[in-house]
Specification:
By secondary structure, the chain is α+β, with helices and mostly antiparallel strands. It has helices at 2-14, 25-35, 37-58, 99-165, 171-206, 232-235, 240-261, 302-368, 374-409, and strands spanning 22-23, 63-73, 81-95, 215-216, 266-277, 284-294. It has a single domain (2-62, 97-265, 301-409), classed as Outer membrane efflux proteins (OEP).
Length: 415
């Protein structure tokens, strides 16, 4: 066993799997927070929502402008006349049916929505990152499994060859052992190819622009979990996806109020001061102050159409929230169930693997002693190989299912 372990370790290092760069899970999270393009896009969407909020607030603040003029004019039969002026004017909204106030409140809700949308993207990025990380971790471990299987298959082939030379085994048994060894060699080649494939997948999820080989550290251990069933109907309220839909509905409700305010008059306070003259600098002062009112009478049905659109948007947002709530509850239940099933499957598969190991040791000794046939022995060997691969896959599935549960709850790369 020691000789086999040394051989496998030597093969592992000679294949170039161990590279200069080694990443753990926390390092991957930190890099993804900084460089992942989907997260960067979601951040900019949030920044755009903040800017929209500033635009909406500007309608409630005074609008002040400065102006200046210098020019010459000439009429027939008259001398050239010069005119100079400069001044400041301002306007302040007094009343518009609370349209601007509702627009600002809706913009604030859209900022919240963008924040929750970022959390949704971040949660998806975390799931994809963990899937790629575990995939590479599993591929690395699968490479070791494939090498162990190849070593065992070659040892078995050599044993059968000796039996065949001694006349105690037939040609079919030898060919079967050689085929098993050839399959193990192919499995090893495929496992080596998969390493780079999963490295590239993780490279993408990290947000790297260039590919370099690396390894990841960790293990596929599946620990004990809290099996108390969550209250999905309560848990759903804290998920980013539902909170995004709730804020979108609130923004649509405020948008509807804003559309109704279009039917109210708009009242402004206006004022300004100006200095003008026929020479520079101008010396004649003038000022103005007053209240202006505008009231829409007919705009070709524009306001009615805008109101109908806002009503439809609000009804749509209500339906989206109901549908989203039901969908998230179902997703939570499915993810929780799948996680429990996969964790339990690991325990069962460990028992199968332990049993297969024990049977393989017993039957191998019996075959060497001539107490069992090649057919019985190779069935046990095939079962050992199958259960070894199945155990690795079961562990991988359990870790991915856990990530699916965390994503359903909305866990992000920042947590």
């Amino acid at each position: 066993m020691k000789r086999t372990a040394v051989l496998v370790l030597g093969l592992f290092f000679s294949a170039g799997v161990v590279s200069a760069e080694t990443l753990d899970w926390q390092t991957c999270l930190q890099e993804a927070r900084r460089a992942q393009p989907e997260l960067q896009s979601a951040r900019e969407q949030f920044n755009a929502a903040l800017a929209d909020k500033g635009l909406a607030r500007s309608a409630l603040l005074p609008q002040i402008s400065a102006s200046g003029n210098a020019g010459k004019s000439k009429a027939a039969g008259r001398k050239i006349a010069e005119a100079y002026s400069y001044g400041v004017s301002g306007r302040q909204l007094l009343f518009d049916g609370f349209k601007s106030a509702n627009d600002l409140a809706a913009a604030q809700e859209r900022v919240k929505s963008a924040e929750f949308a970022y959390d949704v993207v971040s949660s998806n990025v975390r799931l994809n990152l963990w899937t790629a990380f575990v995939g590479l971790l599993s591929a690395q471990e699968n490479l070791g499994v494939a090498r162990n299987i190849l070593v065992r298959r070659k040892q078995n082939m050599d044993m059968v060859a000796l039996q065949y030379k001694g006349g105690r085994e037939h040609k079919g048994s030898l060919l079967t052992a050689e085929a098993n060894a050839a399959q193990a060699e192919l499995d090893l080649v495929e496992a080596e190819r998969n390493i780079e494939l999963y490295q590239r997948r993780l490279t993408k999820e990290l947000g790297r622009s260039a590919f370099t080989a690396f390894t990841v550290t960790g293990d596929l251990t599946v620990g004990e979990i809290d099996r108390s069933k969550p209250e999905f109907e309560k848990l759903v309220e804290s998920t980013p996806l539902l909170r995004e839909l709730v804020t979108q509905k609130e923004a649509a409700r405020l948008g509807l109020k804003s559309a109704r305010a279009d039917f109210f008059p708009q009242i402004y306070a206006d004022g300004g001061g100006q200095r003008g003259d026929a020479s520079w600098p101008p010396r004649t002062d003038s000022w103005s102050a007053g209240i202006s009112v505008s009231f829409p009478i007919f705009q070709g049905g524009q306001q009615q159409a805008a109101l109908a659109k806002s009503q439809a948007n609000y009804r749509q947002s209500q339906a989206d929230e109901r549908s989203g709530r039901d969908g998230v509850i179902l997703t939570l239940a499915q993810a929780w169930t799948q996680w429990l099933n996969d964790v339990d499957q690991v325990k069962v598969q460990e028992k199968f693997f332990q049993a297969a190991q024990q049977r393989a040791e017993i039957v191998e000794a019996q075959y060497k002693s001539g107490l069992t046939t090649f057919n019985d022995w190779t069935i046990i060997e095939d079962d050992l190989v199958r259960n070894q691969k199945a155990l690795l896959q079961a562990k991988t599935n359990a870790l991915l299912s856990e990530a699916g549960w965390l994503q359903a709850k909305g866990e992000t790369v920042d947590e």
